[in-house]
Amino acid sequence: MQLLKRLSEALGPSGCETQVRQIINQEIKHYVDEIYVDKFGNLIAHKKGNSPKVMIVAHMDEIGFMIKNIEDNGLIKCSNIGESDPSIFVGEKVNIKTKEGWIKGVITTKKVCDGERQKNKVELTDIVVDTGLNKEELIKLDVEIGSYTFIEREFGFLGSEDYITGKALDDRIGCYIICELVKKIKYLNGDIFFVFTAQEEVGLYGATTSTYNIRPDWSIVIDVTNTNEFSENPSIYVGKGPCITIKDASMIGNRCINNWITEIAKKNKIPIQYDVGELGTTDALNISISRGGVPSAVLGVAIRNIHTTIGIANRKDIENTIKILELLLKDPPKVCLV
User: Fold this and answer.
1) Averaged pLDDT score across all residues of the chain
2) 2-62+167-330: CATH homologous superfamily?
3) In terms of DSSP H, where are the helices of the chain?
4) Window from 107-116, 161-170, 275-284 with minimum mean pLDDT
5) What is the mean pLDDT of residues 109-113?
């Protein structure tokens, strides 16, 4: 889990994925035939082979904030990067890059600063970052409009070491799975592109540009999905196996690919779950409608606390996802359309 720890703790909101990209590049560059960064910032690793041409995808970026205004008293107003509930960020530590290094801050609201009760729901407009510096001091340090604020959070384990916790598990778990997959697969028949995309959280953009250039026969996106195990009608649990997203808010996964995954799981006695959801989507949406269309599916890991500063996942779910993909990619099937 040391690689996942480094990936989780890396700073990489949308449009600023450099740290994550460098970690991945260093980890897998000796296991692929070629690896490069495209014009959009996607990292693409290629294991050459015969048909079919397959894309395995995970996104590098995480949710976060960007500075939009600095008040005279030094309190920093931010714009959100990706969707999240602003209230969950209050009290979190952040790092801001300066010309001399880093400065630390705390996300808060003006009422919380003054010791008042926050009676109403915290909105994005209420959020400020307090660094202990005034505007003039911040400007001298090269903190400006458009600077990123990076959430600080350590990776670790809960009461059981099967349960991991950390920031940006969406989708550093997917990045970790692909890295391990690249290292495990020694021989394959297919032509496999492992794609680590940029700017998924703000519009699935890296998936669009990479798919356009690669032109895959089919694709699987590795992402996380939110558990609902504490709802009235639970169906998705942490620790009960990888999860196939049959449908999300904007996409229906390719049934043929879903069937391949299901057959492998059943044959090898790997637990599998299915998600039919109404919220959110993944890179698979834009991949599936690229050019003339690309049959695409989503295989993921259920986590708790999605799009917060600290998620919870089960390492066995991660390991089982790697097993399924390894078995599938050793001899990848030709595409079918239904």
Assistant:
1) 93
2) Zn peptidases (3.40.630.10)
3) 2-9, 18-28, 110-113, 135-140, 169-184, 205-214, 255-267, 283-288, 315-330
4) 107-116
5) 79
Within 13 Å and on the Cβ side, how many CA atoms surround 94?
29
Residues acting as catalytic residues: 200
Query: 243-247 and 296-303: which strand pairing?
Result: antiparallel
Q: For 249-271, how does the pLDDT look when each residue is reduced to its tens digit (9 = 90+)? A: 999 999 999 999 999 999 999 99
Alpha helix positions (H), 141-251: 169-184, 205-214
Q: Name residue, tokens 């202990």.
A: 132
Domain ranges of the chain: 2-62+167-330, 64-151
Residue matched to tokens 């693409």:
44
Q: Which residue has the higher pLDDT, 122 or 284?
A: 284
Strand order, beta sheet including 163-166: 156-157, 163-166, 311-314
From 301, 288, 300, 291, select the one nearest 335 (Cα to Cα).
288
Rg (the chain; Cα; Å): 21
Question: What pLDDT does 337 receive?
Answer: 67
Q: Which two tokens stand for residue 213?
A: 């250039």
Asked if 122 and 40 touch (Cβ cutoff 8 Å), the reply is no
- 334: pLDDT confidence band, cut at 50, 70 and 90? confident
- Model confidence at 338, in pLDDT bands (50, 70, 90)? low
User: Going edge to edge, which strands form the sheet with 34-37?
Assistant: 34-37, 43-47, 191-197, 53-59, 218-226, 296-303, 243-247, 273-276
Secondary structure of 28-56 as H, E, C letters: HHHHCCEEEECCCCCEEEEECCCCCEEEE
Cα separation, 96 vs 153, in Å, equals 14
* Architecture of the domain defined by 64-151: Beta Barrel (2.40)
pLDDT at 135 over 90: yes
Taking the C-alpha atoms of residue 1 and residue 159, their distance in angstroms, rounded to an integer, is: 16
Distance CA 148, CA 143 (A): 9
